[in-house]
Specification:
two-stranded antiparallel sheet; 12% helix; 64 residues; alpha+beta
Amino acid sequence: MPVQKSRRTPSTRGMRRVHDKLAKPALSIDPQSGETHMRHRITPDGFYRGKRVIEKPAGNEGEE
């Protein structure tokens, strides 16, 4: 069974762990509604890059 030859210092340990952090999601603000959403995805209103790409059905407006 392998056994380490010398103890790893806290500095070296930190240098090894520096890339283990979680990345924050890239967010964008829609120019039409001003809503924050994830990049390269449509907003819940159906807008993508300032243009409406999905129309909401007319029957769902009273239910929500």
